[in-house]
């Protein structure tokens, strides 16, 4: 038991989960900063182009970068620093969990990697359909029988029996991203499963409708779903490597 506890503590300390990007949009600049960037960038670009010189060329490049930042709402520096001012303005949910499950990581990975299995324990999802090896179609019900919201996602990173990461595709109705890591605690017997999932409503009228989905009740439901994965996996007697329970 002491060996198990020390192994678990080491994994929790060293196996850091990287926060997923904000779904498909890569937006990490808030609206206020976008306006300032556009205004300042336009002014610097205009001033820099009035007369060609080295200093003014530098100003032009800085201005062009600010214009790009304002138009796209994306800043590489923000991404490098892990800074996101857009999340403070939009409706978003970010959840993380660490679960020790009494199953080998190969079985847990196989079950999760077959994405159609996700609604079996994720009650906030109605359906996930794999469309090809990397892409899938997700459907979630909106509380209050207000219909459903659907989006397409793509597996962005995977390492067999160790890591799965995904994000929604551009122009999706909702920004969704997630990452799951599988680490041995007792090899062949128990596994530490680290999960991070994020949802974010896009801007505009559609975003206002999606925001109805991202409420405290929905957040609690996702938390329960992550815990339900442990219960389901420990209940299944055998999970073949194709992810289909026997």
Automatic annotation (TrEMBL):
CDD domains linked: SRPBCC_8
Record family assignment: Belongs to the ribosome association toxin RatA family.
InterPro entries on file: COQ10_START, ORF3, START-like_dom_sf, YgaP-like_TM
Origin superkingdom: Bacteria
Protein name, entry field: DUF2892 domain-containing protein
Residue ranges constituting the Coenzyme Q-binding protein COQ10 START domain according to the UniProt record: 101-229
Domain called Inner membrane protein YgaP-like transmembrane: residue spans: 27-87
Record-annotated membrane-spanning stretches: none
Coiled-coil residues: none
């Amino acid at each position: 038991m002491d060996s198990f506890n020390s192994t678990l503590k080491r994994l929790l300390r060293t196996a850091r989960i990287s926060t997923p990007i904000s779904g498909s949009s890569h937006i990490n600049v808030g609206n206020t900063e976008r306006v300032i960037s556009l205004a300042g960038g336009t002014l610097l670009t205009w001033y820099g182009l009035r007369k060609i010189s080295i200093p003014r060329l530098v100003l032009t490049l800085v201005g062009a970068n600010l214009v790009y930042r304002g138009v796209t709402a994306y800043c590489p520096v923000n991404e490098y620093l892990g800074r996101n001012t857009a999340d403070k303005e939009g409706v978003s949910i970010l959840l993380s969990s660490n679960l020790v499950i009494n199953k080998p990581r190969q079985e847990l990975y196989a079950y999760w990697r077959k994405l159609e299995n996700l609604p079996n324990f994720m009650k906030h999802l109605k359906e996930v359909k794999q469309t090809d090896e990397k892409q899938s179609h997700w459907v979630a019900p909106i509380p209050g029988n207000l219909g459903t919201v659907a989006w397409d996602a793509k597996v962005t990173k995977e390492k067999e029996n160790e890591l799965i990461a995904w994000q929604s595709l551009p122009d999706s109705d909702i920004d969704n991203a997630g990452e799951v890591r599988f680490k041995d605690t007792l090899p062949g017997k128990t596994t530490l499963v680290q999960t991070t999932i994020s949802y974010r409503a896009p801007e505009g009228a559609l975003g206002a409708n999606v925001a109805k989905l991202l409420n405290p009740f929905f957040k609690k439901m996702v938390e329960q779903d992550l815990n339900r994965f442990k219960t389901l996996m420990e209940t299944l007697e055998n999970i073949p490597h194709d992810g289909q329970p026997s």
